[in-house]
Amino acid sequence: MSIENRLPEAYLQRMRRELGGEADAYEASFCEKPFYGIRANTAKFRVEDMKRTFPGQLTPVPWAPEGCYYPAELRPARHPYYYAGLYYLQEPSAMSPGSVLPIVPGDRVLDLCGAPGGKATQLGMRLMGSGVLFANDISASRAQAMLKNIELAGIPNVYVTAETPEHLAENFPEYFDKILVDAPCSGEGMFRREPSMVKDWEAKGPAYYADIQQQILRTAVRMLRPGGMLLYSTCTFSTEEDEENVRKLLAQDPALSLVPIAPRPGFSDGKIPGTVKLWPHKIHGEGHFLSLFQKAGGSDSKEAAASKSAKCSASKPGRLPEEAAAFLARLPEKYRKLTFLQVKENIYLLPEDTALRPGLHYLRTGLFFGALKKEHFTPSQALALALSAEDFSGKVLYPLEDERVIRYLKGETIDTSGAEEDGPDGWNLICVDRYPLGWAKRSKHNLKNKYCPGWRWQ
Ligand SMILES: C[S@@+](CC[C@H](N)C(=O)[O-])C[C@H]1O[C@@H](n2cnc3c(N)ncnc32)[C@H](O)[C@@H]1O
Predict the structure, then answer these.
(1) Do the Cβ atoms of 252 and 218 come closer than 8 Å?
(2) CB of 188 closer than 6 A to ligand 1?
(3) Active site annotated at which positions (predicted)?
(4) CATH, range 394-455
(5) pLDDT by residue (tens digit) across 37-70?
(6) Burial of 402 (0-12, 13-18, 19+ CB in 10 A)
(7) Which of the residues 235, 312, 431, 452 is marked catalytic?
(8) In angstroms, what is the span from residue 195 Cα to ligand 1's centroid?
(9) Where would I find the H helices in 184-301?
């Protein structure tokens, strides 16, 4: 199909005007096939191990140290390591915002427009279990999809909410150290990969999104602590949505300054120095825009922000029911010292920052530890993926090539009679190599499958 038939006339005219001598290269990029990206979950799995898993098949994404390209025929989602949450499949350019925002363990991080969670899982992994990730999306159904990705990635220190930015801001004034606003946009950078975005562009256009983005950004800034940093990204090229929004935000809030993003291979300058554009005709990836801000006044420390919000923290919990307490006693100390929250039969282990606020729509409050049914405790799928094999004494380690790995992922009961891994009855963590997949309950010579039914290998 010709480029004129694929893209709206008004869009083509604008791009030809703006890109000048590069317009032909931009249009020619629509003949290329999309690029596929895989990002190591470095909280569990090193990039070198990922490369060894797919020998000779992965090549580095130049701007994202944890990212690689893979050939379409590889199908890494049909591999048991995918079910162990060891990597995430992500469009290569979409790896840039989560890699540029300078997250350090211990940070309070907000991903305000987070679903389906590509960047949220990246931010969460960079926290390495310390600090807290708030993963939010205005849409509850999209936030639900994000929750699954976060659980699969094994991120324990997380709150997942489905909230308006305004409602969050009322509850978390100047609370976060780092905020990502990966805003809804007109999607021009995705036209090659997702032609359906073209229809949305024709129906709404950049101006519609620019207003929403400005509103989201202003609200996000209210939640940024003095000294904190905010990354604003879109997957569009329109100046109205990108640089104009940067200018408006800087003009309306004197406390904000633009932090120049350090050059990386593949990064081109935006129209404002220090901002970044990724262009599909210059890189192997789709279009993106990035800008980084800092709020003045870093003297207001994290501790001060903590005391400001301490009055809203969770109330002191009661005692854990006996079976759940016995199970918790088998976990490492870092889990045992967490505050727990029981909501009906479900028990959650709250991040050190017990940032619960009444009236917010939480889909997840911390690590889902497990459920109690008639006093009996069942550990959760999320807990299995947050643990490492060393964290739990009762476990079965199957090598990758063992056919029982796929049988376990399909939900089958595994007969262990005569097998050397027979052990005491009770809960066992089933692992592929040394990476947890889920739970099974051993009874005599059977491992009764407790793998989450919705997650099964199809
Ligand atoms: C570009 S997508 C985010 C992609 C996501 N960051 C990722 O990497 O997977 C934008 C998201 O913003 C959400 N959204 C739209 N309007 C919003 C608003 N006013 N506040 C918060 N999120 C919003 C949409 O539901 C959508 O999931």
Answers:
(1) yes
(2) no
(3) 235 (nucleophile)
(4) 2.30.130.60
(5) 999 999 999 999 999 999 999 999 999 999 999 9
(6) middle
(7) 235
(8) 19
(9) 196-203, 205-222, 243-252
CA–CA separation, 228 vs 177, rounded Å? 4
Residue 182 marked in a binding site:
yes
Q: In the numeric block, which tokens belong to residue 54? A: 């797919």
Q: Indicate the pTM of the whole model.
A: 0.95
List the structure tokens of 96.
């840039």
Does the Cβ of 182 fall within 6 Å of ligand 1? yes
Domain extents in the chain: 315-384, 394-455
**Ligand 1 center–CA 185 separation, angstroms:** 9
Q: How many CB atoms lie within 10 A of CB 341?
A: 18
Strand ordering across the sheet containing 367-373: 340-343, 346-349, 367-373, 376-379
Helix, strand, coil share (%) of the chain residues, nearest 5: 35, 25, 40
Is 269 assigned to a binding site? Answer: no
Which atom of ligand 1 is closest in space to residue 119's alpha carbon? 8
ipTM of the assembly? 0.99
Q: Any catalytic annotation for residue 235?
A: yes
Atom in ligand 1 nearest the alpha carbon of residue 115:
27
List the one residue out of 220, 240, 1 whose CA is nearest residue 232: 220
